[in-house]
Amino acid sequence: MSNSKFGISFNPMLCFFISCVPLIFLSESFTQRTLQLCEGVLKLLSIWFCEKFSKFLVSRFQKSRIPLSFVQIPMTLVLKKMALCSTRVENVEENERISLLDLPELTLECIFERLSPAGLCSMAGVCSSLRERCTSDHLWEIHLKQKWGKVIGDTAYQEWQCQVASRNGPSLSGQDKKKGLFESLLSSRPFSWITPKLEKSCKVRTTLPVDSIMAWYLSLESGNFWFPAQVYNRENGHIGFMLSCYDALLCYNSETDNFHARYSSHGRRTLEENIGWDRLRAPPVNTPPFVLHVSDCLPDLIPGDYIEIQWRRNKEFPYGWWYGHVDHLEPCDGNETLCRCHYSDTVVLKFNQYSSESRWRRTLINRKDHREEGNEVDGFYGGIRKLYKEEEIARWKHFWPAQVLEQ
Question: Is 59 helix (H, G, I), strand (E, B) or coil?
Fold first, then answer.
């Protein structure tokens, strides 16, 4: 409809919204007084006008022209529509609630992989579905490698499996009357940083296998599992053990973030405390401490190679690994072009941490027929490992003594 006098074209829909503006501003002016009522009305009006009444207007406009007074709508129709839309608003709000489990599988995996061990334990206490996901081996393998990968190896895992097999206890289920391993680990004092977050999780009935990676991690973390590893410079850097690495059973203390160690010697166990992470390593070979290591690198040894060699004071002692390097034979001047030391059956091993007068400064071994060699005075030399990785060599040099050992 147009007004020829003013040259203005009127749109019925525009007129409708213009008529509604005062009502909207009026309702907003009372929001502070009647907040709850206005909030419900505004929701209903927005849905009703957009979804229902707009369709009604469009159909009416198509059939006939409607004067500006069309906004005078019977209030009975409005009340009916408002009552109908009230129920629909509630349903829409309920349908928009998204659970964590509704997320895509890949998204869930990304979230779980970024959770800390404490976060995974807390999440596992929410419901049985989340507990099943948060206790899966592949998630806990990540944390196991990050924190424990450099100090535990195959030997520690085998020892863990032996302990699990020897228990033969009940499964870790909420139906068990006694505490299982999982609950007992979480209730232990060194692991108290996780316990408060799992108080509610005990209500969830599920099963955690005793041989799961999570159970192993918690056992290490709580100090309930003494695992085999090796310690550099045992007994707090005793001069008799400088630049050596000995097998021990270790227990973690989460309160101090260090370890206790038990060494075996002469039939008695020696205990050492407050051992830092930097002094530990996983055994590089699966050779027990009282067994001679089979050397497979002897044909390849040349002057300048860095090695570890087994050594013990007498046959009642376990072997320790000692750091040294391959040196030139006495007639050789060290010239790389003229050196023929690598063709000789005799290999010179040198330990520069000792003074030139020390009887442990140098030793000779037979390249082709090397077995345990030595005596009760100088000790016994066993198997040899060649060090190929710069990281291993750097760790040994990190423990180099401040002064030459006069032994």
Answer: helix
